[in-house]
Amino acid sequence: MVETGKRKSAEVVSAARASGRNDGIDLLRIVSMFMIVCLHVLGQGGAMRRLSSRPATYNAAWLLEVLCFGSVNLYGMISGYVGIRTDFKAGRILRIFFQLYFYSILMTGITWLISPALVDREIVIGSLFPLSMNTYWYMSAYVVAFVFSPFVNRMIRALSDWEKRVLAGLLIGVFSIWTFMPRILETDTMSLVAGYSFVWLEVLYVLGACLGSLPARKRRAGVYAAVYLLSAAAGWALKIGLEEYTRRVMGEAMYGRKVISYHSPFILIGSIALLLWFSQIRLCSGRIRELVRFLAPSTLAVYLIHVHPVSWQYLIKGAASSMTYLPWPLLIPAVLLAALGIYLTCSLADRLRISLFALCRVDALCGRVTRWVQELRDRNRNADGGQ
pTM score, two decimals? Predict the structure, then answer.
C-alpha cells in the first residue's frame, strides 16, 4: 500500500511537470484571491471599523488585513513570473475581455430586471466601458501591462542573471523603500497612488519576471514563511505603534494607515517570500491537484463578480460591520468564513460561464487569434532576417 501510494504520488508530480504547469503557482492564485476577498470583507464589509470599546478586535482585524495585503502584489508578480517563461498569447487577452464584459454587462442587466432603481447612470456607463471608466481598477492596469508584456519580456531575457538581480533590487529600493517615508507623510513621490496604478503593476510584473527567469534557489518552506510572517508582524506593529503614540501626543491616531500600502517594504517583501515559497510547492496528492485545477480558472471571476459595482455597493458594503462587536478571537474566523462563502459562491457560479463559453467555442476562437498573431509575428521576423 505504501509503495503504491508513493508510486502514484510520483506519477502525479511527473504529470504536472510534463504539462508545464506549476501547481504551486496555481495554488497561490487561489490563496491570493481568497486573501483579496478577506481584504474586502474587512474594508468594504466594515469588519475592521474601530470601536473604542473593542480596541483588541480592531487590532486583530488589522493584523489579518496586513497578512492579506500582499495579495494584489502577488497577482502582479505571478503575471511576470509565468509570463517570462511562456510565449505571448494574444488570445488570452481576448479571453479576459470576454469574461470581463460577460460579468460586467450580465450582472448589471440582471439587477436592472430585478430592481431598476439600483442601476443608475454611473453603473450603466461603468458596465459598458469597464476598462476606460476604471470600474475594475486592477483590470484597467492589467490589460495595459499585458499589452506591453512581450516587449518587456524580450528586454528582461536579454539581461544577464546578475543584471536581473540588480534590476530587482533597484525596483524594490526605488519604488518601495525610497517611497516609504514620503508615503507616510502623504507625498506620492513616484505617482504610485498607493499601488492602485499601472506604474506599480508594471513594477510588479518586471519584478516577477526577474524572479521567474533567475535560476531557482530552493530553501526550506520555513524560511519563506518566517520572512512573510515577520514582515507582516513588523508592519502591523509599526502601524499600531504609530497610532497609539500619535493618539497620546496629538490627541488622534495619525500616520498608521499610511504604513500599510501595496508598495510598503513590509508588504512587498512578504509578497516576494510567498511567491518564492509557493513556486517550490509540488502537489503530490491527485485529489488536491484536481481541486486546484478546478478552482484556479475561476479566480478572475471571483474578483469580477464580488467587485462588480452592484455587488460592491449593495451586497458587500457594510455587510460585515456587526463583526466589529465580536471578541477578537472570534473576529478572525468570522471574516475567514465570510470570505470563504463569497469565494465559493462566485467560483461555483463561474462554472456556468465556463460551460457557456465551451458551448460557444470561445477558447477555440481565442486559440485562432493566438495562432494568427504568431504567424504574423513569424512572417515579420523572417522579413527582418530572423531578428
Answer: 0.91
